[in-house]
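Purpose: get a first structural picture of the assembly so the mutagenesis plan has something to point at.
Setup: two entries, given in the order below. No constraints added.
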Amino acid sequence: MIDHEKIMYDCIKLAAKGIGTVSPNPLVGCIIVKGNKKIGQGYHQKFGEAHAEVNAINDAKKRIKSLKGAGLFVNLEPCSHTGKTPPCVDLIIEEGIGVVYIGTKDTNPLVNGKGIQKLKKAGIKVFSGILGDHCKEINKTFFFANKHKRPYITLKFAQSIDGFIALNNFKSKWLTSINTRKIAHNIRAFNDAILIGSNTLKTDNPILDCRLSNNKNNPDIIILSGKSPINYKARLFSVQNRSVYIYSIKTNKDNLVRENVKIKFIKSVNGMINLRIILRDLYKEGINSILVEGGSYTLSQFFKQELFEEIYVMIAPKIFGKGISSFSDFHINSINSMNDLILHDFFSSGNDIIINYKKYR
Amino acid sequence: MIDHEKIMYDCIKLAAKGIGTVSPNPLVGCIIVKGNKKIGQGYHQKFGEAHAEVNAINDAKKRIKSLKGAGLFVNLEPCSHTGKTPPCVDLIIEEGIGVVYIGTKDTNPLVNGKGIQKLKKAGIKVFSGILGDHCKEINKTFFFANKHKRPYITLKFAQSIDGFIALNNFKSKWLTSINTRKIAHNIRAFNDAILIGSNTLKTDNPILDCRLSNNKNNPDIIILSGKSPINYKARLFSVQNRSVYIYSIKTNKDNLVRENVKIKFIKSVNGMINLRIILRDLYKEGINSILVEGGSYTLSQFFKQELFEEIYVMIAPKIFGKGISSFSDFHINSINSMNDLILHDFFSSGNDIIINYKKYR
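Result (structure tokens, whole complex):
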């Protein structure tokens, strides 16, 4: 007897190997079984390259001549349309696969059940929804971005118990422990891009890479530039193999010419940036997920405009008394449990606490 | 075979029945066994009345004539001195108990191992340290207060994620959920007294009772009174069966005469109250543990003077942006992990998070 959930779980683990290299495509892993034995596996490795199903089928055929009657497990519905590669559904039918086990449907309107229909029409048995929630979770940013035409947004900050992200004199770098920073770098690795305001670039001069994470694919960088000029000697520009998007309200586009830096001019109304326009543009650039790391002004803008899906708060075991608040450019006049956040997860890291909230619905 | 840990655990549960009524005495439960069977039990019920051992022995003798050779379990070393009641050790010897199982030694210099010695001299077998950590924990405030001659202090506050205990307009009563407030009332019940500043009395007019807790013994009240006059019609004065201690820097002691209210004059230096003097006085009044519930100024004074052993933070799933910080009369100039708090416990209550810290050593 084969354990369908166990094999689907292995597909998800395979899929996760694509983190950092496949977006804006989804993370997909595929396993092929025959006679209760695993005979091949593969995952989508790089945007524009072969899909998971193709890699798994090729892997299986190294070991076995015919895949007639074999079972194919995949965490996402196989594609039925021609994109950068031919439809996987056609290949599955061609190879004579007998049963297809699917984690979740692809909500992309070009697929959305059409892949399943085509398989069924060809006489292939299809079971879908195996570990459905897990399979939705691993591609949540892909599904969200394609539905809303803007990236999935996570706000992240580290603070003292009493809610300060920095001392007023800024002598408070690295509030949290090294282990908590490792966790923060892993959260970065799950995002296509990290966003900061130009003031944070100036005061913190952060590298914003994933050096403490196991995943070495550094996300792209987005800088929202107000009036303060960008220092192109800042450390984050030295990181290779990533793009930097600068959205500037200033018309003079500096005269920087660098391959991986894109400077875009945006209008501001009363000094305020319209985040929705920027997010739509970033989606077109292929950014499905953004981690907003501050500072306080930038976090406030996203919070005010309700442009976020999750919040990660890292709480260091310190009391500051006074300092810079996490959302200082925002305030409410009365409390209303209607817009409470949803507590999603929480855990400790040494004496630090990490809390993950999701936005109220 | 008897399970020593199980029986000691039952002693602790019995002891806990005395919460709210035995302080400044310790919480003590006692179980007597004979031939692997429990034959009696008792606990210390009220300050000044019979000790747990006496109650357990009397209970056992209802069922069995002679306790010769019986085993006696007790979470705290039996007393060997004459206080409000005669020494328990003498009674144990008299009754011919064969074995005594003790949770932890009594650090009171009048006992501190002397009870154990006396039992051993009388030929009784003594085993101590059974569930020692649990037995120390349940009487931590008793041990602490007697060692340091001041009450064990817990700071407690509820705040938004970004560290505000109230909105600037104070339209923010009951930040946390009803379930979290129940937990807060249970924490109250573990303390001999609740302390607030006179400003909180004025702005919040709190009742400060345990109405949501299973334990209906309301702690005493301590009010630190600055310049604002005390409103004797405030709601907390209406609660029966508890004392209210008011420490005032004003010389005119009002002309209130009420049985359960004690007004004490204290000197202030530059408007600052010397908390150590007050705490020493409260210890003499029989207060072993205090829950400091605010407001921000009062919490800051205790934090600044390092007069606290634990902190409970209740975090509601809200972002305020601006408001009143939990420790606004305090600040640091640089971070130093040397004085980090120790994360002791954390748990969720609906969408709220409750974090318990202990002071760095």
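The longest strand of chain A covers residues 152-159.
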